[in-house]
Amino acid sequence: MEAPPFSSSCSSSPLSSTARLLSSSSSSSLLFRRNSFSKTHYSAKFKSPRNLSVRASGDSVVTLLDYGAGNVRSVRNAIRYLGFDIKDVQTPEDILKADRLVFPGVGAFAAAMDVLNKNGMAEALCSYIEKDRPFLGICLGLQLLFESSEENGPVNGLGLIPGVVGRFDSSNGFRVPHIGWNALHIKNNSEILDDIGNRHVYFVHSYRAMPSDDNKEWISSTCNYGDNFIASIRRGNVHAVQFHPEKSGDVGLSILRRFLYPKSTTTKKLTEGKASKLAKRVIACLDVRANDKGDLVVTKGDQYDVREHTEENEVRNLGKPVELAGQYYIDGADEVSFLNITGFRDFPLGDLPMLQVLRYTSENVFVPLTVGGGIRDFTDANGRHYTSLEVASEYFRSGADKISIGSDAVYAAEEYLRTGVKTGKTSLEQISRVYGNQAVVVSIDPRRVYLKNPNDVEFKAVKLKNPGPNGEEYAWYQCTVNGGREGRPIGAYELAKAVEELGAGEILLNCIDCDGQGKGFDIDLIKLISDAVSIPVIASSGAGAVEHFTEVFTKTNASAALAAGIFHRKEVPVQSVKEHLLQEGIEVRI
Ligand code: 1PR
User: Fold this and answer.
1) Which residues are annotated as a binding site for substrate?
2) Residues 318-355: pLDDT tens digits?
3) How far is the centre of ligand 1, averaged over its atoms, from the C-alpha of 483 (Å)?
4) Residue ID of nearest Cα to ligand 1 atom 10
5) Which of 304, 306, 339 to mutate to test the pocket of ligand 1 (most atoms within 8 A of CB)?
6) Is the separation of the CB atoms in 209 and 227 below 8 Å?
7) How many beta carbons lie within 10 A of that of residue 279, not counting itself?
8) DSSP states of 338-349
9) SS3 234
């Protein structure tokens, strides 16, 4: 395919406060005590499926443009998994000398452009692309090729492709951010998409570029989410994708492999799928904490009580975090979440090897990883102060795609509702400003409080389908902090609406009453919250059978359903859940 001339207008823009934050957070190296931690200890039994992995020969080096925001570790891991070494861009000359360049844009548009402009990378990128050198942009790495973006803007982009990047419209009922596995509509020969077999790929973004007459020659695929937006572009050797191949399981690895081995005969066509729209997600959750011997284990509570009811009163041990996460990936989980459930009292960067768990997991697990627990400001025993942004940054650098905030989000919401002022200083606001709200989940731990009369309380109450123990017909859902230990004067409904305004991109909705009971999700609660907000809601707590997943997706607007106990105890495999959902006509990723 011949590459027509490019219309470049590489532009510069002043350094924003976001970019200053971004560069300072990314350059800060955290001085925390790393526990001695053996990789074999945590991943001894887990063997990754290597069927898609091939060894590169000859010039097996990929140049990676990583400007220090968000999770680029996953892209690195996927490239290494496919047999390539990575050379990091240090100077603009490294871009010009690259044989193949991967640009995984992460974070906000303006912040990324500021960094690129400041260090001369923008010009080098334009020059490299204009010469039709092998290029793969990912997510923001696609958006930055356009003329400008409305994200905190307008802000000028690299100007290589005609068009403005705009925000999804949530007024038509589509939740923003667009998070999850969606279908591609192939428009032109893209080569790198040749083997994907009509399967879903993983998107996570609030802004998108739209097709037009001016950019139609660039478009290789579109995706529908309220409107048709550009999912990938291709011109000559230049490719860019809005979705995340490094997070799209075997489909994504196949796309990356086609880019890295353009003339390869080693490609393997994947099983044909029937992807047509955004799939409902099935998420495996690992509650993690140190047991009494100090080993980090996956545990599971009954209504948040994680101790065995024996004389020893030990913390329940259901397996090793890295091993189990790897197994759930193989089994087809659409995401894996780690919740460090004692993070509220232990400093996550100091005492617990959660960072190592993330690092090892992300080497072999190519679906999104969320980590939560202990994300807040903290001063250690030596008086060193860590901001929640630093804690989150370290999680992102270690392989997390999203972080989840529990207790700290409750305090932030209470303060916001009390004063009506967004200070911009809460962990929620800071992290979503720097990393984008799609990277920030708020985990809610509510407990049912039964009422005879809904007017007995200032918080939103619901009429229950099943009355309470004393025949109460109503309940409100009281938020808790510190792993359910302390009730707070705020309801789940009020909290959900407040954290959406403060910048949360998704809600993980637990329910203490249902946790570990296996009797089904709390439909009243999930309906209340998923109807109240326009960000995606993950239903959690209570799954005990495949039918419970169908129920939550047919009776509420949940975007995803999460389970722990039934997966850990191997009572119901992830695949059975998906097969059942498909039989019931609910689209899921296969
Ligand atoms: O407050 O920011 O440090 O975050 C702490 C995080 O740890 C929160 O996300 C909170 O939900 C979680 N957490 C704290 N204590 C517990 C506990 O169980 N004692 N776990 C806990 C929350 C709930 C779900 C569980 C589902 C599904 N566990 O994660 O996986 O209920 O379980 P099921 O399918 O077996 O019913 P911070």
Assistant:
1) 374, 510
2) 899 999 999 999 999 999 999 998 877 776 666 457 88
3) 7
4) 483
5) 339
6) no
7) 23
8) EEETTTTTS-TT
9) strand
Q: Which residue has the tokens 């249902």?
A: 514
Contact 93, 138 (CB under 8 A): no
DSSP sequence for 99-153: SSEEEEE-S-HHHHHHHHHHTTHHHHHHHHHHTT--EEEEEHHHHTTEEEE-TTS
The answer to whether 531 touches 500, Cβ cutoff 8 Å, is no
Q: Look up residue 336 and give its DSSP letter.
A: E
Place of tokens 């979503």: 432
Residue with token string 């660039």: 218
Report how far residue 295's alpha carbon sits from residue 285's, in angstroms, rounded to the nearest whole number: 19
For 405-522, where are the alpha helices, taking DSSP H only?
407-419, 427-435, 492-502
149 strand-pairing partners: 155, 165
- 270 contacts 276 by C-beta, under 8 angstroms: no
Beta strands in 322-376 (DSSP E): 335-340, 369-372
Question: How many angstroms separate the alpha carbon of residue 43 from the centre of ligand 1?
Answer: 23
Residues paired with 426 in a beta bridge? none
Q: Residue 312 carries which DSSP code?
A: S
Contacts for 17 with CB less than 8 Å, ≥ 6 apart: none
Q: Please answer whether residues 58 and 383 qualify as being in contact, where contact means their C-beta atoms are separated by less than 8 angstroms.
A: no
pLDDT of residue 350: 62
Share in percent of the chain as helix, strand, coil (round to 5): 30, 25, 45
For the chain, the C-alpha Rg in angstroms (whole number) is 23
- Counting other chains too, the contacts that 321-324 makes at CB distance below 8 Å and 24 or more residues apart are 321/42, 321/286, 321/288, 321/296, 321/297, 321/357, 321/361, 322/42, 322/43, 322/46, 322/357, 322/360, 322/361, 323/42, 323/43, 323/44, 323/45, 323/46, 324/284, 324/286, 324/298, 324/568
Q: Which two tokens stand for residue 124?
A: 């080098």
Q: How far is the CA of 404 from the centre of ligand 1 (A)?
A: 11
Give the tokens for residue 561: 């359903």
Give the Cα separation of 211 and 164 in Å (integer). Answer: 10
Query: Which residues face 469 on adjacent strands?
Result: none
- In whole numbers, what is the pLDDT of the chain averaged over residues? 87
pTM of this prediction?
0.90
pLDDT tops 60 at residue 134: yes
